[in-house]
Specification:
Elements: H1 2-19, E1 22-27, H2 45-55, E2 60-62, H3 81-95, E3 100-108, E4 115-118, H4 119-130, E5 147-150, E6 154-158, H5 164-174, E7 180-183, H6 190-197, E8 202-208, H7 213-231
Parallel strand pairs: 1-2, 1-3, 3-8, 6-7
Antiparallel strand pairs: 4-5, 6-8
Helix pairs in contact: 2-7, 5-7
This protein binds zinc ion (ZN).
Zinc ion binds at residues 29, 42, 106.
Length: 234
């Protein structure tokens, strides 16, 4: 009996190892001074990263530096304690052949970007958010009518060598009519660049600083669903 149980346990552990994925969350610009009036930190990044980490049952590596001195998302910051810690996590993932993903969390001021979106999508997004009425995907019909310019609620920057995670999250959010944008990767976002170098799927996520608490919670909920779905390979 004991023999059988331990055999079952080994089988269980083998299978669970396949779906276990370590999620590394980083927030390089989250360190804000209490009375900072100028744009030297990402004002919503700390809160968004904390909520995301709680929902995904992981922790966040927060910035240790005020951005004015050192941009912790640039290559020259790699000798800092913050980047050394990230580097060690990535190395561990690679050496132990663990399944890992990295989410680099930021926020942007509301006036920065605009995106074109169908007026209907905005209406559906609000309805979804308020939960007044369930929006059935079949019910939504593309119409010829106006597209309008709105602020994106969120945007993604893909990593250079692994574009799947960014595309996956972006497409998942589309189902909920969330106004979002996706950008191609570049070499300047050094945290996702370093993750790519270690063959760890990664994406940079930027939250709009004008999000209400309700909108932020909603976005986190959908993102967590999307990330879990990506990890399961759905
Ligand atoms: Zn930032």
């Amino acid at each position: 009996m004991i023999y059988l149980n331990s055999k079952l346990l080994i089988i269980f552990l083998l299978f669970s190892k396949i779906s276990i994925c370590k999620i590394i969350i980083t927030a390089p610009h989250s360190h804000c001074l209490p009375k900072a009036e100028d744009r030297v930190c990402d004002k919503l990044a700390g809160k968004a990263a904390k909520l995301l980490a709680e929902a995904l049952k992981t922790s966040t590596i927060f910035s240790t530096h005020y951005r004015e001195g050192t941009d912790l998302n640039r290559e020259e910051s790699r000798p800092t304690q913050f980047r050394i810690e990230i580097g060690q996590e990535l190395k561990k993932c690679r050496q132990e052949r663990q399944n890992c993903i990295l989410l680099d969390v930021h926020s942007f001021p509301k006036e920065t970007y605009l995106t074109s979106i169908k007026r209907d999508c905005v209406k559906h997004y609000r309805t979804y958010l308020d939960k007044k009425e369930q929006v059935q995907s079949g019910k939504y019909q593309e119409e010829k009518e106006q597209t309008i310019e709105v602020q994106p609620k969120i945007f993604f920057i893909k990593s250079l060598y692994d574009e799947n995670l960014g595309d996956y999250l972006f497409n998942y959010l589309k189902k909920f009519f969330i106004p979002s944008i996706i950008f191609e990767g570049n070499v300047y976002n050094d945290i996702i660049f370093e993750a790519s170098f270690n063959r760890i799927p990664s994406v940079l996520i930027e939250f709009n600083e004008s999000l209400t608490d309700q909108e932020l919670e909603f976005l986190i909920k959908i993102l967590v669903e999307a990330i879990n779905s990506y990890i399961k390979g759905e």
